[in-house]
Design brief:
Length: 111
C-alpha cells in the first residue's frame, strides 16, 4: 500500500516516510532508493531532519502541513544538503519538483 516505506524512531524525534511519488502517476510504481530525487533522514541527536539532493538536476523541495500551508521550501543544486528544523509534531506532505514537474511526493510524520 505505501511505496518506499521508511521508519526511523528515536526517543524524542522520528520520521516516517509514508509514500513517494505523485499521487496518480507513481501510485503503482515503487521508487527504489536510487530512483528517488531526495534522501530524507533524521538527526536524532540534534532533533532535526535532513534532506539531500541525490540527482544531478536542480530541484525544489517543499513541505506542507495538512492545511496546505507551505512550511519549508528549498531550491537545491546537485548534492545540496539542507536541515529541516522547526516542524512541530504532526503530519506533513512533501513534494519534489524537477524542471517544473513533480517528480516525487510523500508524507512525513514527525513524532
Amino acid at each position: 500500500m505505501a511505496a518506499g516505506l521508511l521508519i526511523i524512531t528515536a526517543s524524542l524525534t522520528s520520521c516516517k516516510v509514508v509514500e513517494n511519488g505523485p499521487e496518480a502517476e507513481f501510485k503503482n510504481n515503487k521508487l527504489s532508493q536510487r530512483e528517488r530525487d531526495v534522501k530524507i533522514y533524521p538527526d536524532m541527536i540534534k532533533k532535526m531532519m535532513h534532506v539531500k539532493n541525490t540527482k544531478e538536476n536542480p530541484l525544489d523541495f517543499f513541505v506542507f502541513d495538512l492545511q496546505g500551508t507551505l512550511m519549508v521550501h528549498y531550491k537545491m543544486e546537485q548534492g545540496d544538503h539542507k536541515k529541516i528544523t522547526g516542524l512541530e509534531r504532526g503530519y506533513y506532505t512533501y513534494q519534489v519538483f524537477k524542471n517544473d514537474e513533480m517528480s516525487e511526493a510523500g508524507k512525513l510524520i514527525i513524532k
